[in-house]
Amino acid sequence: MGRLILAASTGLLVLLSACAQEKSVDIASAINSSESTQTLRIAAAANLSDVLPSIIDAYRADNNLTESNIDVTYSSSGKLYAQIIAGAPYDIFLSANQEFPAKLAKEKEGSHSNEITHPPFTYAQGQLALYSVTKSLNELNIDSLADVFMNDATAKITIANPELAPYGASAKAFLESQNLYESLSKQKRIIQAENISQAFQYAHTASVDYGFVAHSQLIAIKAKPEQFITLPPESYPAILQDGIVLNDNSSALSFTDYLRSTAGQQHFLQAGYLSVQ
C-alpha cells in the first residue's frame, strides 16, 4: 500500500511539474509574441513627414518586418517635447534640433528620466529654402532678398514658430542677419505658422507670397526651379537634427541604428538633407 501511495505521489509530482513547465513555456511564448507585435511609437518633427515613411518601408523590407507595427506622430519639436515631459508613451523622439533631445537626456524629474539610458544622436542636417508659387525666384539671391522684400510692401512671408520649430528659429535668425526681421514684424508681414508643415502649406496654397520651408519639402513635391532658392547653409544656424531613444527596447535601438546606417542616410540625402557622416 505504501509503495502504491508513493508511486501515485511521484506520478502526481511529475504531472504537476510537466504542467508547470508547459505553463512556463506558454507564458514565455506569450511574452515573446507580445514583444514581437508591440507597436514602436515614434515622435517625429514635422519636416520628416516626407522622408520618414520611405525609411520605415525600407527598414521593414531590409529586416523582414512586414508585420511590425510602427506608429509615427508628426508635430513641431517643441510640442512633442512637451508631450514627452507630460508622459506620452513614445519610444523614439526625432527632433528637428539638438536642444530638445539634450534637455530630455538631462531631465531629472521628468517621467522618462529613469528610462533614458542612451545619449542623443545626430541623424540629419536640414536645409532652409525660400519658396513661392506666386513670384518667380529665378533672379533672386540672398543679396537681393532685402530689396525684394522691402520694395514689395504688401508681400507676406511665413516662417514656422521660432519658439517651437527649429526651422522657424533658423529662418528668424536668417532674417535678423539681413536686418529684415524687425521691420517686417512691425509691418505685420510675417505670418507665423505652427510648424514647418503649416508654413509649407501657407506658401504652397498661395496664402502668403513667400515661405521659409524645408528644402526636403520641395524635393518631395518636385517644385520647379523658379519656385524656390535653397539658402546657403552658412547663412543661418545649422539645422542639426538629433534623436533620442526614450524606452530601452530592442526595436527602438534597431530602428535608430538603421537611421544612422549608410542605407538610412542615403534616404536623407535623396530627400534633400545634408550629410552628417
Helix/strand order, N-terminal first: HEHEHEHEEHEHHEHEHEEHH
Number of helices: 11
- CATH architecture annotation name of the largest domain: 3-Layer(aba) Sandwich
Q: Helix share of residues?
A: 40-55%
Signal peptide: 1-20
Binding site for molybdate: 77, 196
GO molecular function, one term: metal ion binding
Family: Belongs to the bacterial solute-binding protein ModA family.
Q: Can you walk through the features of this model?
A:
- The protein has 277 residues and is of the alpha/beta class.
- It has helices at residues 2-37, 52-62, 77-85, 99-106, 142-151, 166-177, 181-186, 196-204, 215-221, 250-260, 262-270, and strands spanning 40-45, 70-75, 92-94, 121-126, 128-131, 157-160, 190-193, 210-214, 228-230, 239-245.
- It has 2 domains: 38-125 and 239-270, D-Maltodextrin-Binding Protein, domain 2, CATH 3.40.190; 128-230, Periplasmic binding protein-like II (D-Maltodextrin-Binding Protein, domain 2), CATH 3.40.190.
- The chain has 11 helices and 10 strands.
- A 5-stranded mixed beta sheet has the order 2-1-3-10-4, sandwiched between helices. A 5-stranded mixed beta sheet has the order 7-6-8-5-9.
- It is globular.
How would you summarize the topology of this molecule?
Elements: H1 2-37, E1 40-45, H2 52-62, E2 70-75, H3 77-85, E3 92-94, H4 99-106, E4 121-126, E5 128-131, H5 142-151, E6 157-160, H6 166-177, H7 181-186, E7 190-193, H8 196-204, E8 210-214, H9 215-221, E9 228-230, E10 239-245, H10 250-260, H11 262-270
Parallel strand pairs: 1-2, 1-3, 6-7, 6-8
Antiparallel strand pairs: 3-10, 4-10, 5-8, 5-9
